[in-house]
């Protein structure tokens, strides 16, 4: 990620059992962010083989990460390792975020001397995260030829509500194929679980062709919603991202004070202006005071671009964005038709346009249309079931007759 100009990286390296912490190049930081305000700047957080320990994460930091995903729409990536430290996270609020169930009887995972491989699920074949080639067939071929992994996490099954994109090509248990790449939505954010630490092997012979592309797609996918619309002290995001007409849209906002601290108990409103100019204002309710989170809902009644304006009374700040509602408006009774559209449809389909006073011409035109040519349907008698049944019946009668006269 350090080589990606579109990604700003901060890496915290733990050294369990040693006094040192941090290290590396300029992208490395010495300590975990000291406040929630500092942590809220991060769009995506990766957790490697780390857990709840004196030399690693604290319970409070795990609570912050939980709130970062649930209230701030950030992304969280779990990449467990053979030390099994991720099991200590089961004692923290991060347990609810994990999209898979782990096997506590095998904390160190499973290893193999021979390379093992991924297999795309139906969801994985359609997902942008697993798209490593331009076409579906090429993508399947790429995943089939990627260098394999020799260790995978002790996963039992994916939790309900999650999406499994990659499974183990061979290993299965009583729940089915072993899930190795699983995603889910939690609160306002997204979570991803990568069940092996061998993705670095994808660089063999091709350098960053697939490894770089995959993780770049992961980061941008997880950070997209959080960065739909943002200002200095406000952030606005909504779901679904491409709503239909008369579909309820859930709106979430994060509002900060001028000092950078989350606003708690503020007066936050959202004004929606429809394409026709009709306006409505909804009051957003506080959904997480510690993170300055506010939420509300609205239902677009018209197709087209809706203008959203987020406003906070306490800070005086505002933020504007647009939401495009897809769909076709209902036919409006009493409104004039659009003859130019009808004429264009008739031209494209080789038809004609008639006005109401030319009803007789319509009847004459339809009467003058030639009859449909007769259709010829050929039936292969030798392959028809009735013919086969007839032959069997004749053979049966022939056998019965010979049996009757004593020839058999």
Key terms for this structure?
408 residues; alpha+beta; 8-stranded antiparallel beta sheet; 6-stranded mixed beta sheet
Structure characterization notes:
With 408 residues, this protein is an alpha+beta fold. 21% of the residues lie in helices and 27% in strands. The strands form 4 sheets. It has an 8-stranded antiparallel beta sheet. It starts with 35 loop residues before the first helix and ends with a helix. The mean pLDDT is 88.
Briefly summarize what is shown.
By secondary structure, this protein is of the alpha+beta class.
What profile does the largest beta sheet have? 8 strands, antiparallel
Strand content: 25-35%
**Shape label:** flat
Report the count of strand segments: 18
Write the layout of secondary structure elements.
Blueprint (H helix, E strand, L loop, with lengths): L35 H4 L4 E4 L11 H14 L2 E4 L21 E3 L7 E7 L1 E3 L1 H5 L9 H10 L3 E4 L2 E4 L4 E11 L2 E11 L2 E6 L16 H14 L4 E2 L3 E6 L9 E7 L12 E6 L5 E10 L4 E6 L5 E9 L5 E8 L13 H10 L10 H9 L17 H20 L4
Parallel strand pairs: 1-2, 2-10
Antiparallel strand pairs: 3-7, 4-6, 5-8, 8-9, 9-10, 11-12, 12-13, 13-16, 14-15, 14-17, 15-16, 17-18
